[in-house]
Write a structure and sequence with these properties.
Strand order of the largest sheet: 9-15-14-11-12
Strand content: over 45%
Shape: globular
Distance between the termini: 99 Å
Number of helices: 1
Helix content: under 10%
Structural class: mainly beta
Length: 284
């Protein structure tokens, strides 16, 4: 009897040792969508053009606001307008306008060639950083890719996304990144939901890489475009405020809603030779 009990206890010990541990929850960063097939032998071309401004530059005042201090109290700050048009006084070229193609078959597009996007929360500079480029207000993201968001200040930030993405994410501490995968094509409008209403940024999520921004003189170029018929579209964010929301306690401005941006399109037929697109002319 004693031997049978001892054997039973040993069996229980062995079973307990061999039993699997509790399953751990593993959070994985989602993989980007597979890159489209790219055939070098497919006839391709280069599109180029210019975006210029018609008339005197718009008068846009800087932002004057109140910002909470980390140790308490309020500080008056002045910031540049987030969507101030950058117009060359000699050539009238517009810098930073977005140029893209519509009607592209993503399966015939060249590989994605834009660096990853990081959203940096810092109320003294723009939000969007494409690779190692200086911060700006626009970025291009391949659909299915992950963007990294991080605060660069020791003060509370809350990032709000609307449009092709919908979320509000808190950033109570500096240098603690968060990530989000963008699965829907379209434009994502980024703003602060923590009172820094002058912080505005835009992400364009797409299956194809034919996106660019104009240089200081307004010139742009799109390379390796497949032969076909497309629409070239230029977009510039608006500097006009359509709606102002205020804090009910202090009366201070809490959020700006901008008017729709300026947009123009032009049909283009792409052959094997380079195509020079007529100037896009924007005005107030």
């Amino acid at each position: 009897m004693h031997r049978r009990c001892t054997a039973g206890l040993l069996a229980l010990v062995v079973v307990g040792c061999d039993s699997p541990p509790p399953t751990a929850t593993i959070t994985q960063v989602p993989e980007p969508l597979a890159a489209p097939h790219f055939t070098l032998h497919t006839p391709r071309s280069t599109l180029s053009g210019r975006v210029i401004w018609d008339g005197p530059p718009p008068s846009v005042s800087p932002v004057n606001a109140l910002r909470p201090k980390p140790g308490g109290g309020i500080a008056a700050v002045t910031r540049p307008h987030p969507n101030l048009p950058r117009i060359d006084p000699e050539t009238h070229g517009i810098a930073g306008a977005v140029v893209t193609l519509r009607g592209i078959d993503a399966s015939n597009a060249k590989p994605w060639d834009h660096p990853p996007v990081t959203i940096e929360l810092h109320d003294e500079r723009p939000l969007v950083r494409q690779g190692d480029a200086p911060p700006d207000n626009v970025g291009f993201v391949r659909r299915g890719d992950v963007v990294t968001m991080v605060s660069r200040q020791n003060q509370f930030h809350l990032l709000r996304a609307r449009g092709a993405a919908f979320w509000s994410l808190t950033f109570p501490d500096a240098d603690r990144p968060r990530t989000r995968r963008l699965d829907t094509e379209g434009r994502v409008d980024l703003t602060s939901a923590a009172g820094y209403y002058w912080m505005h940024g835009y992400l364009f999520v797409s299956d194809h890489p034919y996106w660019t921004r104009t240089a200081a003189d307004g010139r742009w170029e799109l390379r390796d475009v497949p032969v076909g018929e497309y629409q070239v579209v230029v977009w510039l964010p608006s500097w006009r405020v359509a709606k102002v929301e205020r804090d009910p306690e202090s009366g201070a401005v809490a959020r700006w809603t901008m008017s729709a941006g300026l947009e123009q399109g032009s049909k283009v037929v792409v052959g094997q030779a380079g195509v020079s697109v007529p100037d896009f002319i924007l005005k107030d």
